[in-house]
Amino acid sequence: MAGGGKGKEMSFWDHLEELRGTLFRSILALCLFAILGFIFKDPLFRVIFRPASPDFAIYRLLGWDFSMEMINVEMAAQFFVHLQAAFGAALILAFPYLVWEIWRFVVPALYDNERKAIGGAFLMATGFFYMGVAAGYFLVLPACVQFFLNYSVSPLVSNSITISSYMSMFTSTVLLVGVSFEFPTVIWALSRIGLLDRATLRKGRRYAVVAVLVLAAIVTPADPLSMIVVAAPLYLLYEISILMCPRSNDID
Question: Does pLDDT of 1 surpass 60?
Fold first, then answer.
């Protein structure tokens, strides 16, 4: 495979060795950040449990009122919750380094023009990921918490939230929304290498609306408020993606 216009050929075993090194360094980085999550347990869980507090900013802003108390019903649950929280935080904190490792792995296979085009996408990936994480933490997760705490099939049944279920919702929601915010990065990269243009994206608006609603339904519980909270910024990102396409590709 040609190496970025340098004329360097890499064999299958060379690529395999590079992949092994990339995976090793990435896993090592995740483990190091996870160790920090174990060491700084109190600050970590102050951040994690903040959306479970009734005085969280978004609840006060929207006038939502609820009371939530978490329980533990399994012997080892709190340890595994700490483990899950540590690696979830490690993935978020190490994301820029992981993106850089992926870039290092793929760049030898790119020609010079592709390298310039895709390089910007890797730089954008971190920013959009953290925007998604923030949206998940401050908007989507609180909406989910509010919905599930107030949902009941009967007044005879009260909600007792286990720490394991809350942690699962926290990590899946925040990380999924963070990943979903990478959409503009993908669109921008495809447009830079000539696979998409503004005209195509504009014609695909109706399909984008359907795709955004489906994705919002997957990420959130099936209530209108949570879906709107997720779908609105995702569709906004689609419109931003149109504006980010190079003008040279706009054939309208």
Answer: no
Structure tokens at 16: 């395999």
User: Is the CB of residue 4 less than 8 Å from the CB of residue 109?
Assistant: yes
Instruction: Report d(CA 186, CA 108) in Å as an integer.
Output: 20
pLDDT attached to residue 58 = 86
Which of 76, 70, 67 lies closest to 170, judged by CA?
70
Q: Please tell me the distance from the alpha carbon of residue 105 to that of residue 90, in angstroms, as a whole number.
A: 21
Is residue 111 classed as helix, strand or coil in its secondary structure?
Answer: coil
Rounded distance, CA 201 to CA 216, Å?
20
Q: Give the pLDDT confidence score for residue 204 in this predicted structure.
A: 84
Inter-residue contact 240 to 184 (CB < 8 Å)? yes
Average pLDDT, the chain: 83
List residues bridging with 2 in a β-sheet.
9
Supply the pTM of this predicted model: 0.82
Burial of 126 (0-12, 13-18, 19+ CB in 10 A): middle
Adjacent-strand bridge partners of 9: 2
**Residue 188: closest CA among 242, 138, 225:** 242
Indicate the DSSP class of residue 136. Answer: I
Is residue 95 over pLDDT 90? yes
Which secondary-structure segment (H or E) carries 145?
helix 141-150
- 140 Cβ neighbours under 8 A, 6+ residues apart: 173, 174, 177, 219, 220, 226, 229, 230
24-47 confidence digits (pLDDT tens):
999 999 999 999 999 999 999 999
> For 8, how many CA atoms within 13 A lie in the half-sphere containing its CB?
11
* pLDDT at residue number 36: 95
Residues facing 30 on adjacent strands: none
